[in-house]
Amino acid sequence: MIRLTIAAFLGFALLPLIGNVHASSINTSSGWNMPMGVTDISQEVFHLHMTILWICIAIAVIVFGVMFWSLFKYRRTQGAKSAHFHENTFVEVMWTAIPMVILVVMAIPATATLKKMYDTSNADIDILVTGYQWRWRYEYLGEDVSFFSNLSTPREQIYGQEERGDFYLVEVDEPMVVPVGRKIRLLLTANDVIHSWWVPDLAVKKDAIPGFINESWTRIDEPGVYRGQCAELCGRDHGFMPIEVKAVSEEEYVAWLASKREAAITEAQGADREWALGELMERGEGTYNTYCAACHQPDGKGLPPIFPALAGTGISIDPSARQAHIDIVLYGKTGTPMPAFGTTLSPAELAAVITYERNAWGNNTADSVQPAEIRDLLGSQ
Amino acid sequence: MASESTHAVLQPNVGTAEHGHHPAQMPTGIMRWVLTTNHKEIGSLYLLFSLLMLFVGGSMALVIRAELFQPGLQYVQPEFFNQMTTMHGLIMVFGAIMPAFVGLANWMIPMQIGAPDMALPRLNNFSFWLLPVAFGILLSTLLMEGGGPNFGWTFYAPLSTTYAPPSTSFFIMSIHLAGISSILGAINIIATILNLRTPGMRLMDMSLFVWTWLITAFLLIAVMPVLAGVVTMMLLDINFGTSFFDAAGGGDPVLFQHLFWFFGHPEVYIMILPAFGIVSLIVPTFARKRLFGYASMVYATASIALLSFVVWAHHMFTVGLPLTAELFFMYSTMLIAVPTGVKVFNWIATLFRGSISFEVPMLFALGFIVMFTIGGLSGVMLAIVPADFQYHDTYFVVAHFHYVLVPGALFAILAGAYYWMPKWTGHYADETLGRWHFWLSVIGVNLTFFPMHFSGLAGMPRRIPDYALQFADFNMISSIGGFLFGFSQLIFVWVLVKAIRGGEKAPAKAWEGAEGLEWTVPCPAPIHTFETPPKFVPEVDSPSRH
């Protein structure tokens, strides 16, 4: 049976070698080990990890070596007679003192690296990162640019109706774009529950906690796309709120900022005109599926009792509750997971999604809400 | 080693069923078990309950492993997946591991210290019967509208308060009941050990299992009220409009984590210290050599227990603690490696120049030493804050704590069960089946948990129902291993049933190298033992004698 064990160990040691040839890597990891990453800090962390790993392996080899040698040498079946000693002060002092020394050796570089990781001063760019159930929002402080970043992997891939892409579950619709070679300070918070913003290639993992603003920083030298995921259990779709950081040249970054600003202006102008019901429904469906469907479900049936149904029930079919419906979408509902969308979505998106909810899935109230109405409501605050 | 003459001195006045306590009044049938105040019967109840919970929690683990066998969502939806991870953790921690240790304590502590029973027998009955109620409530939440707890066994607020399913108040109730059970059990164990030792037995003459349980019991009394406090604050937040953990009301979500882990870290040692005690009995027995460094084992256990109160924030390195706090908790956590290392070295020094045989209890004890050490070494890695930023909340952590809890705590419990099965049933466990159980468990446990080190390091977060394609191979291996390990545990049930029904009869001293008062009473132990205290001569009988 010992042979069987060894075979099994070798088996699982080799399997991934064969398998990983096909699977594409989502970070700089070999697939076995911590990614080396692309920042000075991430490389320092990697080397620290390797140092400690080798120390631990060496300890394991020595300890298990002595143990297995004793088990082999002093087998009763080989006629071993037991000795009578049961203490030895010198040995006991040594195996208390030597580990202490090893720990100090580990602690010194760890302390140095940690100090660097905590130094968030003199940043060039500040980005406010806010965790939502279940998406991230990035706000470039002082740049007038902010947007949500949602999982872009289609449901069909998750449920196996479509072939899965290379970046299955680690791809988003709007990546966080940063320039290379600049110190970026991340200010992290959350809107609902605790999330954790983690990009392995940057060696940044920091919790995003409602009511707190945590700080972290990174400086990326190599252009590229670096992927990560939420690392703190945050509810149903915790596994479905990835992070994508796109590092580009300074010029590209400036151009990207400008295009984001322009897009925001175009979006706001949507409130200047009258929208047809069909147009609102079409826009609303997209908005609904991105922001609402995770809880209220694509078919509007919700997941009661926590996430109520919208189809065929409640304020979304009550003609007299149109204003209540608008209010709950704009301002949220305290004491429940329903967030306030009024400050984060555009008037056009809000009007469209409310219209959609009042007319989809057989709700057919024929109510429509115009972007201008939402803009005026929000503007009158 | 106890000589034959020692046994004559130790000859206990053994009560037998014939002249036990008023057999005519003893209830029969189910009521006998409901009303029993006998430490052995209550011990059996605890052990059987924990075995049942092991299979309930294990089935949930297999739901998790089935879903993670391949990328994509196949069998369960994320909300049910989260309920499974949460319930698996809660049931294994509070329903399987902890009650198993209390069951072993009930059976063995009075017999090891020469006491007739636990100090507080009725309280003992009450502590046990709280558990089926607590876990009945907990399991019933799965059937409630909105489902059971889905916020992880660590139930971080506000996910477990504002954003939790309505069944959360029932979850809180069940935690309270399980907590009361633990506190009462701990009081009973302390009272028993401090008051009922046979005349002549000093503290430093107690077996290490008794010692580790004494220290564990103090940990339980210290931290279970903190858990009770934190769940009560949750209850108030959910139902009575307070804002302890709600930032919008001026509360502090991080406070929850500080309170939880102030309970949670000592809790980790509650689940491992008695395991150290069991292994410290089994290794000398089968190495036929006295335990090396008895006194340093006691001091190391006490050091680990004390340190466990000042390391809690190492579970929270990413919450944004100030630099000085991170450094303090890093250093204090690393320090725990020292007493833990002392223990491992002592066990190996006990093996060194022994006369070693490999019966099933010894196999599980040796498996414990090797794999617990692997878990301990990954624990040292996790203490290093900059690296922990990469490990935290990944499968690396899952691998770490399963190594210390499954081939750690669980293997020690199984080792103890095989070791004392002759004392409980009168028959040796089937050696062949036991070996199959051990080797299949070793293969299963390593196939399950070793690849998790790799998937975690490569970037797979824990508690996710679906994952990037890069992690597919390791997850498939883990799932195969998980099923192998899970089904292998059925062999243990077979072994146990077989030993209860018959098998090779064991003498009072079932193992040649065993020491301690429990081996002076017959196998199976009669319902009442040590009605008059046995003689104990420290110079001859103490494990710390010179």
From TrEMBL, chain A:
Its EC number(s): 7.1.1.9
Cytochrome oxidase subunit II copper A binding domain: residues covered: 122-259
Gene Ontology terms, MF aspect: copper ion binding; cytochrome-c oxidase activity; heme binding; oxidoreductase activity
Location, primary (coarse class): membrane
Domain Cytochrome oxidase subunit II transmembrane region profile residue range list: 26-121
Keywords from the UniProt entry: Copper, Electron transport, Heme, Iron, Membrane, Metal-binding, Respiratory chain, Translocase, Transmembrane, Transmembrane helix, Transport
Domain Cytochrome c: 279-361
Transmembrane segments: 47-72, 93-112
Signal peptide residue numbers: none
Swiss-Prot/TrEMBL cofactor(s): Cu cation
Recorded GO CC terms: plasma membrane
Keyword Signal: no
Membrane topology: Multi-pass membrane protein
Cofactor note: Binds a copper A center.
InterPro entries per UniProt: CcO_II, CcO_II-like_C, Copper_CuA, Cupredoxin, Cyt_c-like_dom, Cyt_c-like_dom_sf, Cyt_c_oxidase_su2, Cyt_c_oxidase_su2_TM_dom
Family: Belongs to the cytochrome c oxidase subunit 2 family.
Functional description taken from the UniProt entry: Subunits I and II form the functional core of the enzyme complex. Electrons originating in cytochrome c are transferred via heme a and Cu(A) to the binuclear center formed by heme a3 and Cu(B).
Name this protein carries in UniProt: Cytochrome c oxidase subunit 2
Chain's gene name: coxB
From TrEMBL, chain B:
Protein's name according to its UniProt entry: Cytochrome c oxidase subunit 1
Source species taxonomy: Bacteria, Pseudomonadati, Pseudomonadota, Gammaproteobacteria, Oceanospirillales
Reactions catalysed according to its record: 4 Fe(II)-[cytochrome c] + O2 + 8 H(+)(in) = 4 Fe(III)-[cytochrome c] + 2 H2O + 4 H(+)(out)
Principal location: membrane
Keywords recorded for this protein, A-Z: Cell membrane, Copper, Electron transport, Heme, Iron, Membrane, Metal-binding, Respiratory chain, Translocase, Transmembrane, Transmembrane helix, Transport
Record pathway: Energy metabolism; oxidative phosphorylation
A Gene Ontology biological process term: respiratory electron transport chain
Family classification: Belongs to the heme-copper respiratory oxidase family.
One GO molecular-function entry: heme binding
Ranges where the Cytochrome oxidase subunit I profile domain occurs: 33-541
Regions that span the bilayer: 45-66, 86-105, 126-144, 170-196, 208-236, 268-287, 294-315, 327-348, 360-385, 397-421, 433-454, 474-497
GO CC, any one term: plasma membrane
Organism: Nitrincola tibetensis
Root EC class: translocase
Originating gene: ctaD
PANTHER family: CYTOCHROME C OXIDASE SUBUNIT 1
Pfam families: COX1
NCBIfam families, A to Z: CtaD_CoxA (TIGR02891)
